[in-house]
Design brief:
By secondary structure, the protein is an alpha/beta fold. Helices cover 51% and strands 11% of the residues. The chain has a four-stranded parallel beta sheet. The radius of gyration is 15 Å and the shape is globular.
Length: 138
């Protein structure tokens, strides 16, 4: 079974059953799915910002529990710092959240499923789920 770290955008698409959700569900089926702690925090923040009710927040928590969760440790913190420093030295933008997600995928030797490929394509050794994995199936 392959491991895939799921970016916040893809997890949100699936949770909210966005028009693209089925493409992601099909591409991820049969894999061990992992959320970075930062994706969990981002999704909870959105629920708070948008004033979701108890029922919808509970559904979100249940949804997130269906993934494995990766939390920061010393090695992950060092990987995050190195990614941010390399991006900065190269004059590239890499948000703190995206750096945590990329560092998680690298640390776990997992592919990354994201809708925002351009945010991650410059990161060496990071395996992005190929675009064809998300193409419409006919």
């Amino acid at each position: 079974m392959s491991r895939i770290v799921v970016d916040t955008d893809v997890a949100s698409y699936i949770f909210n059953w966005h028009s693209s959700a089925q493409r992601y569900v099909d591409a991820l089926r049969g894999s061990e799915l992992i959320l970075s702690f930062t994706s969990i925090a981002e999704m909870r923040m959105r629920a708070m910002d948008e004033g979701w009710g108890v029922r919808r927040r509970n559904l979100l928590e249940h949804f997130m529990r269906s993934f494995g969760a990766a939390y920061a440790d010393d090695a992950l913190c060092t990987s995050w710092a190195a990614l941010r420093a390399r991006a900065r030295a190269a004059g590239r933008s890499l948000s703190p959240q995206d750096a945590w997600i990329a560092a998680t995928a690298l640390r776990l030797d997992a592919a990354l499923a994201t809708n925002n490929r351009s945010d991650f394509e410059h990161i060496q050794k990071l395996r992005l789920l190929p675009p064809r994995a998300y193409s419409a199936r006919g």
